[in-house]
Amino acid sequence: MPRPCSTRRRGGHARASAGAAPGEACGDSREGCAWHHVAVTDLADRYGRTPRPRSPRRGWVIVAIVVATPFLAWLAWVIWIFSTPSVQSEIESFSIPDAHTAVAVVNVTLSDDAVDPTCRLQAASTDKTTVGEQRFTPVEGSNRVEFRTERQATSVELIGCTAKGQTTPR
């Protein structure tokens, strides 16, 4: 009667177990071993459980797609709206000619659909207190704005420009 064989790892080659007949080897070929007649079976047969059905996983994927699609559409819309403002502006230069006057040069870019654009400038003193503020209606290109201050200003800041439907100053 043939005796069972053992190996250190699956598919590996090793010496036959102590109970094997001399010259009998186990390896990829199971000939001569007691378990040679046992066929490798399905995992469900071997361990006594059935594989899980794939439909619940597919259901979660469908739910994720249904939830993610409107979110991604909204995200694309927000990116588009905020990346294409009606009015864009930047301060080119400023000067403080005297204790009660500030002058700023602002470059403004208006889109074709800009309605009622307004820009806002602020002058600050050395202690960072606002000493003057000016709102103006810009034109396309360079705008020179002179405004009065309460006392000596040291800097002029462009808060930004907005138009109808654009709430964030740019």
From TrEMBL:
Biased composition (Basic residues): 1-13
Biased composition (Low complexity): 14-25
Region (Disordered): 1-25
Keyword entries, A-Z: Membrane, Transmembrane, Transmembrane helix
Keyword Transmembrane helix among record annotations: yes
Keyword Metal-binding recorded: no
Superkingdom to which the source organism belongs: Bacteria
Classification via InterPro entries: DUF4307
Pfam families per UniProt: DUF4307 (PF14155)
Transmembrane feature ranges: 59-82
Name the UniProt record assigns to this protein: DUF4307 domain-containing protein
Origin species: Nocardioides cavernaquae
